[in-house]
Amino acid sequence: MHKILINLLLLFSRKEDFMMVMLWAQQIMMQETEKEAKELYARVPRLLEEKVKKILIDSGMGHLTE
Known about the structure:
This protein is mainly α. It is built from 4 helices and no strands.
């Protein structure tokens, strides 16, 4: 239910996609362990997932998306 609400919110606020994507990517990269980072990546909203993945890959952290 929580993920559905986030996705609906993001659908109506496309202008802020970039900031949301950057915040998710930053939070993922700041995790203490790779396991925690992968768990957080698994919770990224569907509408942001590809953009977050691209940022992680571009930052040399692509292994967290596998």
